[in-house]
Amino acid sequence: MKKQIAFLAIFSTSFSLTGQSPDEVLQEEVAEFTAMELLETWGFLLSERFNLGGLEITDAEVDAISRGMKLYVNREDAPTDLSKSLDPMQNYFADREEMVRRDQMKRNREEELEFFDSIVGQPGYQSLATGLCFQIIKKGSDRKPGKNDRVSCHYVGTFIDGVEFDSSYKRNEPSEFVLNSVIPGWTQGLQLIGEGGKVKLYVPAKLGYGDQGTPGVPPASALIFEVELLKVLGPDPAALGLPPIPQ
User: Fold this and answer.
1) Which fold has domain 126-235?
2) Highest-pLDDT range among 52-56, 73-77, 192-196, 234-238
3) Which of 3, 189, 235, 246 could disulfide-pair with 201, CB 3.0 to 4.6 Å?
C-alpha cells in the first residue's frame, strides 16, 4: 500500500504545487507538450523515484514491468497471488540492489587503481601521502584557508570517465562551507591554494564518498574536481567550538 501511495504522490504533486485543479493544469500543459510526451515524462519520473536505473533493469525487464501496468490499467488480475508474492518481491529487489552495489564497487575500485596508476608520478601531477593527486592551475594569493575556515568556491565535479555529476557554475551560485565539513579530498586540497586560486583534485574514493557513495555518486567512486577558491571567509565559530556570533 505504501508503494502504491508513493506512485500516486508523484502523479499528484504537480497539481498540488500549482494550486490549480488537474483540468486547469492539463489544459495549460497540453498546449506546450503532447499527452504522450507528458505520459512518457511521468514514466521517467516513476523510474527515477524507484531507482530502476540503479538496479540495472534490462529492456526485457522494462517490458515485464509494462505488462504488469497494463494488467492493472485493464483491471485484470495480478500475475501472482499478492498475499504470497509481496515479501519475495521485496527480498528480490533488496538482494538485487546489494548485488548491483557490490558489482559497482568492484568495477569502480579496479577503474580507480588503473586511473591513478596512469597519472601518479607523471609530469604536472603532484600527490600527497594520503593518496590525493592534484594539479595547481593557479596558486592564488598568500591567504590560504585552514581546515576551520569557511570558504566560498565554484567547482565542477566529474567521474574519472569525464561524465559531469555536479557544477556550482550551472547553478549560478558559488558554494559556501566550512572546510572540515566536506569530503577529505576537498579539506586537504583547498589548503594547497590561496584565495583566488584554482586547483584540480583527483580524489580516490577513500577521500571522497567511500564505499557508501551518495545520491548521484555510486559507491567506491574516484572523483575529479576543478575548484576555484573565490574567498576565504575566516574561521567558523562552530568549527572552533565557540558560540555563534550575535546578529
Assistant:
1) Chitinase A; domain 3 (3.10.50)
2) 192-196
3) 189
